[in-house]
Amino acid sequence: MTGAKIAIIIVLIIVVVAAIGGLAYLYFASSSTSAPYMPSMPYVPSTPYIPPPSDPYVPPPVTAPKPSPVPTPVSKTIGGNAFNCATLGSNYFVESNTGMQVCRKSDGSGNWGCPSNWRKLSSAPYCEYSDASTINGKSFICPSGYNPEAGSSMQVCRKSDGSGNWTCPSNWTKIGSAPYCT
């Protein structure tokens, strides 16, 4: 026999063996009610996402000073100007310490405000005297229950109940952007 015939016979034997093996696999796979045994792979969880640390500096919120344990008088003179909490309502008292003065609500809520002719600030002394009866030569008298709040770019009458609501004096026009009252 020549080398070519031997090679053809070897190839035929390999094909026959492979076909028999394939048929045997199909027979046993179809006769079984379960899938062929496959060893399970161990579960390896991926590394969880850990966000980078946030900026460690968080500016503190602007808050009023803590309430005094004992209510003090309803009015007082500060810097020669009357500081009368009665303009906010009957349940306010003067809280005045070194460097700050506010009208504190006596219900223990911590709410505070400033009397008429005093404007509310976001830091100590929290209330600052402001003769806001005229702004730019125009009369600026707030309605009852509201206090003038004026700054370099705005002027409004802020509701004294701590809600943040505001309005303009009757002779001023309310607009949607600074200075808010014109």
Keywords:
182 residues, alpha+beta, three-stranded antiparallel beta sheet, 1 helix, rod-shaped
Computed CA radius of gyration, to the nearest angstrom: 42 Å
How does the overall form come out from the CA principal axes? rod-shaped
Strand-residue proportion: 15-25%
Estimated helix fraction: 10-25%
Number of strands: 12
Query: How many alpha or pi helices?
Result: 1
Mean pLDDT: 76
Q: Could you walk me through the main structural features you see in this protein, from its secondary elements to its overall organization?
A:
- The protein is of the alpha+beta class.
- Among the domains are: 58-130, no CATH class; 132-182, no CATH class.
- The protein is built from one helix and twelve strands.
- Strand 3 and strand 4 form a beta hairpin.
- The model has no long low-confidence stretch (mean pLDDT 76).
Structure summary:
The protein has 182 residues and is of the alpha+beta class. It has one helix at residues 3-31; strands at residues 75-78, 81-84, 92-97, 100-105, 112-113, 118-120, 127-129, 134-135, 138-139, 146-150, 155-159, 166-167.
Q: Could you outline the blueprint of secondary structure elements for this entry?
A:
Layout: H1 3-31, E1 75-78, E2 81-84, E3 92-97, E4 100-105, E5 112-113, E6 118-120, E7 127-129, E8 134-135, E9 138-139, E10 146-150, E11 155-159, E12 166-167
Antiparallel strand pairs: 1-2, 3-4, 4-5, 6-7, 8-9, 10-11, 11-12
